[in-house]
Design a protein that fits this description.
10 helices, single chain, Lyase, Ornithine Decarboxylase, Chain A, domain 1, alpha/beta, 366 residues, 8-stranded parallel sheet, TIM Barrel, 9-stranded mixed sheet, 2 domains, binds pyridoxal-5'-phosphate, 24% strand
Length: 366
């Protein structure tokens, strides 16, 4: 059956399908943007959750200054989609990538992270040779213990070296407080996040005292943006997944207010036992690692396990009328790792399919 866009609803759409509730997503975008405006902080949302220049353009229209990307390949996709101001919150290493970065700089205004002079020197040489200047920020280790130069003397020394390189414009610093998102006690969470973000604020001051301007101080994920946005010295937020929201952010990170905008629609394909139904959506459709998906449209029905392409539902005694062909709508536990499994979003406005949005940056891991 070939359905036109306007005929398509969640009841006749082929499944499994990753669906956006546009009204909920737009409301989340407005909400985060309003919070940023209220506190005089810019928003440069991370694209890793949606990987779509179409959604990025919506964010820019709402007031975002640019996008944050996890990979050079994602930034290339965003630039091809017309986004110029792109923070690649990652380290770019290797001749092939640097050659691509030079080409990206010709069509966009990216920023890349540095935590060692050995990343900066070849980028500087390539940009200088091409007659270009690239914005660079230092990534600081504010406790996540992933990448990042040590705050304090090491940061100052690296900033001085990087700022002196040709082909590079020193643009600021970033840090990610990702190790603190799940601290259970909220006042303890706020205290520890503020201690981590103080490191950024102190290093910004130290750089400026040494005569190195530090216009960008970037941090903040969905699980921490409510604190980061009010923290002195922070100039921009990277929070991205907030546009979709999910049970991981709501329950593990205790993020209030935002609405759920992303669901998976699946079909019951087998009823092997009264208390068991099988849907056509397994872990290749929904990532269950952080939190199991939750059934939205049938009370008494829970997801008991996921194998690759099958989802097993447990039905209580009042919910056993479910039959083969019925539609189940689920909330992915963690939207970010669920989106990367899909080629398209099916974007709904109310009941009607509004558009099919490709995840153009999906698989762009290099
Ligand atoms: C560098 C960086 N910034 C921000 C985030 C937060 O992203 P989100 O708001 O989508 O959870 C992450 C998450 O992994 C990250 O690695």
């Amino acid at each position: 059956m070939n359905l036109s866009l306007t005929d398509c609803t969640k009841s006749n759409l082929d499944t499994p399908a990753l669906c956006i509730d546009l009204e909920a997503m737009e409301s989340n975008i407005q909400s985060v943007m309003a919070t940023c405006r209220q506190h005089g902080v810019e928003w440069r949302p991370h694209t890793k959750c949606h990987k779509s220049p179409v959604i990025a353009q919506k964010l820019i229209e709402a007031g975002a200054i640019g996008m944050t990307c996890a990979k050079l390949g994602e930034a290339e996709v965003m630039a091809a989609g017309g986004i110029r101001d792109l923070l690649i919150a990652n380290l770019i290493v290797g001749d092939q990538k640097i050659a691509r970065l030079v080409e990206l700089r010709r069509i966009a205004d990216p920023i890349v992270c540095i935590d060692h002079i050995d990343q900066a020197k070849p980028i500087s040489a390539a940009m200088n040779k091409a007659g270009l200047k690239l914005r660079v920020i230092l990534e600081l280790n504010i406790g996540l213990d992933r990448v990042g130069v040590a705050p304090g003397d090491a940061t100052l020394a690296l900033a001085q070296q990087v700022a002196a390189l040709p082909g590079i414009e020193f643009a600021g610093i970033m840090g990610y407080e990702g190790h603190l998102l799940q601290v259970a006690d909220l006042s303890e969470k706020e205290k520890r996040i503020r201690e981590a973000l103080d490191i950024l604020a102190e290093n910004k001051s130290a750089l400026e005292t040494s005569g190195i301007p530090c216009p960008i101080v970037s941090c903040g994920g969905t699980g921490s943006y409510v604190f980061a946005v009010t923290h002195p010295g922070i100039t921009e937020l990277q929070a991205g997944g907030a546009i979709f929201m999910d049970d991981y952010y709501r329950n593990q990170c205790q993020v209030p207010d935002l609405g759920f905008a992303l669901t998976v629609v699946a079909t019951v394909v087998s009823r092997p036992a009264p208390e068991r139904a099988i849907i056509d959506a397994g872990r290749k459709t929904m990532n269950p690692d952080l939190v199991m998906p939750r059934v939205l449209n049938c009370s008494g029905v829970t997801v008991s396990s996921l194998s690759a392409e099958h989802g097993s539902l447990l039905l209580d005694e009042n919910s056993q009328s479910l039959k083969i062909g019925d539609r189940i709508e689920l909330l992915p536990g963690y939207s970010d790792m669920t989106c990367v499994l899909h080629d398209h979003f099916f974007a709904f406005r109310g009941d009607r399919l509004d558009s099919i949005v490709p995840l153009a940056g999906r698989g762009k891991l290099q």
